[in-house]
Specification:
alpha+beta; five-stranded antiparallel β-sheet
């Protein structure tokens, strides 16, 4: 029997080794950069979505106000300027824009729309400066002007702002020439609430506000009263 020994084979495979400290630090830094980039992108997308929601909400507010005023005009018989029959007093600056009469004799109550800036007469977390207000005149045309005080009437919309200066309009003159060109009607309004009274039955209404990035949010509509 042969008991000779077979020479042992020497393994040429190296034993596995772990990552070095430098490699771990590089991997951690790379992962951190990737996570930070993803987080920044997510925050940016969330910010864009929030701004879009705010602008969409403001657009809906303007749409509701336009719809309310339009329906009121359609139920009226006569459209006229409000500045000759009304005075706005008190600490809040106010500007009348137009009135709606139920008959040409003006013996019935009239709807009066006016703009009011409350930034100089107090503040509220619920209402922002630049209000559209609606009240009713109870005295006939020809009587002493009705005095509109405080926040008389009902609030239709807040946070109105002028559309100028902006990319669309450089000034009030620029806006007026676009919205109510000379000869097309009587221009009236202020602060983001404007009207172009074309005749006693037809008026063009314009409302504007500003978005999160100071972009102009606007809507306009041409409406006719039902007449007699």
């Amino acid at each position: 029997m042969n008991f000779s020994r077979t020479p042992a084979r020497v393994s040429l495979l190296k034993a596995p080794r772990g990552f070095t400290l430098v490699e771990l630090m590089v991997a951690a830094a790379t992962a951190g950069i990737i996570i930070a980039a993803l987080g920044f992108g997510l925050v940016t997308l969330m910010g864009i979505d929030r701004r879009s929601q705010v602008d969409a909400s403001r657009q809906m507010d303007i749409g509701r106000a336009i719809s309310f005023i339009s329906n009121d005009i359609r139920e009226s018989e006569f459209i006229g300027l409000a500045d000759s029959g009304y005075t706005v007093s008190g600490t809040c600056p106010g500007t009348t824009v137009l009135y709606l009469r139920n008959d040409r004799d003006a013996t019935n109550a009239n709807g009066v729309y006016y703009f009011r800036d409350i930034s100089s007469c107090g503040s509220s977390v619920w209402v922002k400066p630049g209000l559209i207000m609606r009240t009713s005149r109870t005295t006939p045309i020809g009587a002493p002007p009705q005095n509109i005080t405080a926040l008389m009437g009902s609030e239709i919309m807040d946070a109105l702002q002028t559309p100028f200066p902006s990319d669309q309009y450089s000034s009030l003159t620029d806006f007026q020439s676009s919205f109510c060109p000379a000869g097309s009607g009587t221009f009236t309004g202020t602060g983001g609430f404007y009207a172009c009274i074309m005749n006693a039955r037809t008026v063009k209404i314009y409302l504007s506000s500003r978005g999160v990035n100071n972009n102009v949010i606007e809507q306009s509509v041409t409406v006719s009263a039902r007449g007699r």
